[in-house]
Write a structure and sequence with these properties.
Elements (H helix, E strand, L loop, with lengths): L11 H8 L3 H23 L2 H17 L12 H18 L5 H6 L18 H10 L3 H12 L4 H8 L3 H19 L23
Helix pairs in contact: 1-2, 2-3, 3-4, 7-9, 8-9
Length: 205
């Protein structure tokens, strides 16, 4: 996917703010994160077609929910992987690849996709728990408080006996380390879907 470079200097939160009125900003965010999201889903499913469809659904839902994004200190990656995780769990639960997001933005979905299997979720929580366990204690607690409990930085600072600024730094470093620890192996080259295809007027808000 190509874009004109106007938004490249923006961080993820800035891109999502601008994307409320300018789809080009979302394309930059998409380019920034799609390879890792696709690789995560490919590793989970072991099926290139299913991973392609799940990636399309993930970014379609992110596009539709872009005005609800709140930066937790780690950019859009935790948010996008959370959406991907929910899409994956929904696929396994419903025994079908979700399509609601893609239908709303006018993105076609494949008619023939392997039925989701329980094994797609095997070890998912263990992966996260193991990665958290590898963080230094202070980083792990800061990430748990901020991302999992939604605790404000001043409250994190009080619990950890540090300043709110230092709390923000610990969360940022912990999330950076988590992304590195949870990063899938080198992705198998594969086409990845565009998240914005013929969006309906009501969805461009």
């Amino acid at each position: 996917m190509t874009h004109d470079g106007r938004h490249d200097a923006l961080d993820d939160a800035g891109l999502l703010r601008v994307a409320r009125r300018d789809p080009a900003a979302f394309r930059v965010l998409y380019d920034r994160h799609v390879v890792r999201v696709h690789a995560f889903l490919l590793r989970r499913t072991g099926d290139s077609t299913a991973a392609f469809e799940l990636t399309a659904e993930t970014f379609s839902r992110a596009w539709l929910g872009r005005d609800r994004f709140t930066d937790q200190g780690g950019g859009a990656a935790p948010w996008l992987f959370g959406i991907a995780r929910n899409v994956l769990a929904s696929a396994v639960r419903e025994r079908a690849i979700p399509r609601d997001g893609r239908r709303r933005v006018g993105l076609e979905a494949a008619e023939s996709v392997a039925a989701p299997r329980e094994t797609w979720l095997a070890g998912l929580d263990d992966d996260l728990a193991a990665a958290l366990g590898m963080l230094p204690d202070t980083q792990r607690r800061a990430v748990e408080l901020r991302v999992m409990d939604g605790t404000a930085y001043d409250e994190i600072g009080r619990e950890l006996e540090i300043s709110p600024g230092a709390a923000r730094v610990r969360v940022h470093r912990g999330l950076t380390a988590l992304r590195r620890l949870l990063r899938p192996g080198p992705p198998v080259p594969a086409p990845v879907p565009s998240p914005i295809v013929k969006p309906k007027p009501g969805d461009l808000r």
